[in-house]
Design brief:
Strand content: 25-35%
Oligomer: single chain
Order of helices and strands: EEEEEEHEHEHEEEEEEEH
Helix content: 10-25%
Radius of gyration: 21 Å
Distance between the termini: 30 Å
Structural class: alpha/beta
Number of helices: 4
Shape: elongated
Strand order of the largest sheet: 6-13-7-8-9
Length: about 230
C-alpha cells in the first residue's frame, strides 16, 4: 500500500506502508475510488455476508429475499431498480428526500415491492454469520428506532477518491480528486493520473481505461523528452 508520493534529488519517491521506497523518473497515479462507508457497528464484520457496495455484482444473490438500499441519489436508485427484479422487497433508506434524476425516480417510485424510508439514518447492521436486520433512527424523533428484518444491505452513498497519499503534493479539487488536463498531466510535471481518482467526468470503466492509455503514453513521451 502506497502511503506517500514526493520528489527527492530529481526522482519521484513512492513510499509504502511497510517502509520501502521506490524511485522513478515518472509516475502514473491510478488509485481509483472506494465506496463511502456508513461506519456503523456490524458493517465491516458483515461485509460479504449480506453487506455489499455493488448491486450490479451481488443483486442476483438476493433472489426472493428482503434487502435495504442506503442512499437517495442516482447510485442508490439504480441499485434499487436492479434489486426490484430479484428481491422480494426493497427498502430504500435515506437521510432526506431522494436527489436522483427524475427518470430513475419514475422507474422505482410505484414499484409494489419497494418501501421508501426518507428521514432515517442507519445506526447498526445486525446479524451473526450473515445480515439479519438493519436498525434505523428517525431524524425527526431520535427516540424512534425501527428495525427492519432484511438479509441484505446495499450501501450506495457515493465514493471517495483514494488520494490521501498525494495530498499536499498534487493539486486536488474540492472533492479530493486529482486535477488533470486533457493529456492526464497533473500539477507536477512528470506525474500523470488516470481514472476515477481524477476530476474527469463520467466514472465508467471504459472511460478510465482510455484515460489510462493516455496517461501511459504521456509518461512515455515525458521520458523521451527528459533524456
Amino acid at each position: 500500500e502506497v502511503v506517500s508520493l514526493g520528489k527527492e534529488n530529481g526522482h519521484f519517491v513512492i513510499r509504502t506502508r511497510d517502509g520501502r521506497d521506490f524511485r522513478s523518473r515518472t509516475v502514473v497515479v491510478a488509485a481509483g475510488k472506494s465506496p463511502r462507508r456508513l461506519n456503523v457497528p456490524g458493517e465491516g464484520r458483515l461485509l460479504g455476508r449480506g453487506v455489499s457496495y455493488c448491486a450490479v455484482c451481488d443483486a442476483p444473490l438476493f433472489g426472493g429475499l428482503d434487502v435495504a438500499v442506503v442512499g437517495g441519489g442516482n447510485s442508490a436508485l439504480t441499485a434499487a431498480y436492479d434489486l426490484l427484479k430479484v428481491a422480494r422487497h426493497v427498502y430504500v433508506v435515506s437521510l432526506g428526500e431522494w436527489t436522483a434524476d427524475p427518470v430513475l425516480v419514475d422507474k422505482v417510485k410505484d414499484a409494489p415491492n419497494l418501501t421508501k424510508l426518507a428521514g432515517f439514518e442507519v445506526v447498526r447492521i445486525e446479524g451473526e454469520e450473515r445480515v439479519s436486520g438493519i436498525a434505523l433512527r428517525s431524524l425527526s424523533d431520535p427516540r424512534e428506532e425501527k428495525l427492519l428484518g432484511v438479509q441484505g444491505v446495499f450501501v450506495e452513498i457515493g465514493t471517495v477518491p483514494n488520494s490521501g497519499f498525494v495530498e499536499g503534493f498534487l493539486e486536488l479539487n474540492e472533492r479530493g480528486e486529482i486535477k488533470v488536463d486533457c493529456e492526464c498531466r497533473t500539477s507536477v510535471p512528470g506525474v500523470f493520473a488516470a481514472g476515477d481518482i481524477t476530476d474527469i467526468p463520467e466514472k465508467q470503466v471504459i472511460v478510465a481505461a482510455g484515460e489510462g492509455a493516455k496517461a501511459a503514453l504521456g509518461a512515455y513521451r515525458y521520458l523521451l523528452m527528459a533524456r
